Amino acid sequence: MANAPFPVPEIWHEHRVSYGETDTMGVLYYAEYLHIFERSRNNWIRSFGVSYKAIEERGVFLPVREARCRYRRSAGYDDLVQVRTGVSQWGRASLTFLYEVYDETRLYLLAGGFTQHACVDGTGRPFPWPDWFREIFLPRPVA
Amino acid sequence: MANAPFPVPEIWHEHRVSYGETDTMGVLYYAEYLHIFERSRNNWIRSFGVSYKAIEERGVFLPVREARCRYRRSAGYDDLVQVRTGVSQWGRASLTFLYEVYDETRLYLLAGGFTQHACVDGTGRPFPWPDWFREIFLPRPVA
Amino acid sequence: MANAPFPVPEIWHEHRVSYGETDTMGVLYYAEYLHIFERSRNNWIRSFGVSYKAIEERGVFLPVREARCRYRRSAGYDDLVQVRTGVSQWGRASLTFLYEVYDETRLYLLAGGFTQHACVDGTGRPFPWPDWFREIFLPRPVA
Amino acid sequence: MANAPFPVPEIWHEHRVSYGETDTMGVLYYAEYLHIFERSRNNWIRSFGVSYKAIEERGVFLPVREARCRYRRSAGYDDLVQVRTGVSQWGRASLTFLYEVYDETRLYLLAGGFTQHACVDGTGRPFPWPDWFREIFLPRPVA
Fold first, then answer.
1. A7, B115, B117, C127: which has the fewest Cβ within 10 Å?
2. Domains and their CATH numbers in chain B
3. Above 70 in pLDDT, residue B30?
């Protein structure tokens, strides 16, 4: 993760750690990273001029199939973490978001992970990315 | 709250405080009490032989209109809090749950509060308690 | 709450409702408002040029003694709620934050509430606001 | 994960999905699984006659270094999920908990994952499992 080039396009998103997100060890609780990842991928989608909410309204849902996070250095209350996100992999009916969480200076990698999503319809049935979706996110054919 | 008789019927529910529910001050975070209240009122409903899920499936929804909590003594990680719940008030289309949160011995009152709910249908429109609901929870007329 | 003048100084804070903050009724879950209130009061404090974290480091802690929220209209996934905050009451060793949650246009009041806090030291013992604290937040004597 | 024998000793823990744990898609939100995993590993530890809280008081802390979850079938509001936990791997100063989340009947695997932990002291410095810890959890030498 340290050496491979980060996917493009990437976006950065900053998040202030709240009291409610910390635990009695004085750090950002491990499950909270998955909430922060969600905000980041929503922002990545929004950077294309559309909201994930609108995508669902058009019949594409992206449930998480797998999530992973590696925790290197902790974040504390009131820290302003910097989260970098991009799509590292596209399948016919799936995609994978990659995340890196840094400290405020963007020098120290605190954590990193990914979430893999399936493209499904309102009944949960998988189907390939529709054309309108590709036109927004994938202006060229999927390799 | 200390002196008025607790409503009947009441149920008790115990809850183990998890790491994720604590904050950096080392105590159960104040918003978590509202999650615990939810579990308690679900158990109170379930003690009548029906689940809140089944009640919703039958067309009665109980959104929260008001919530209140008073925090006296903190709870810490791994504490086994004891929560006492009952309905303190019935209206034509509303009800109020009362809660008391004790320590493991049930001697020390840690917190207390209430949630007031409206009876609404699937579109959010308020309506009076239907007969089937009253037969379960109110075997006598509402005063 | 609708007619009394809102306390000054006030700050506004916007919050995007995430998927994780909604519930199966499709709305912002009632306990999440208390997390949002926390972010708002932190911002109110920060608007004076100091963080709540620095205040704790100086020996002043503000545990919540009471919290209340009234829910009028729901907020949904991806809504950009607008939260207005100010201090409505100062005591010798306590204060009360007032909150109003609006929709994106600031026209519709979705919810409102307050949190009352005690001024305590690191051992939890209440004590009156120290001079340095007053100089920041209360340039004039407490009425 | 489906075919390899589950580690021993294992414990089972049941968890009722609350409204607050669901999201607007009507299912248990993906980050909530990590909260449930925490409860499960605490129960696994407790099955040896000691609490994780007591372990921390004795100077051993188990921060999460990596967490992973695979989501196969969703869980809904009020479902009574069954969580199976055991330690799949012991290192000199680390361990890995394995989790399987089933439906109420224990027939359908809903999700599975692991959390890997380091053994660290109160300052966060890693150190090998102390003798008293091994006597409780590892009556035989680590392979």
1. C127
2. 10-137 (3.10.129.10)
3. yes
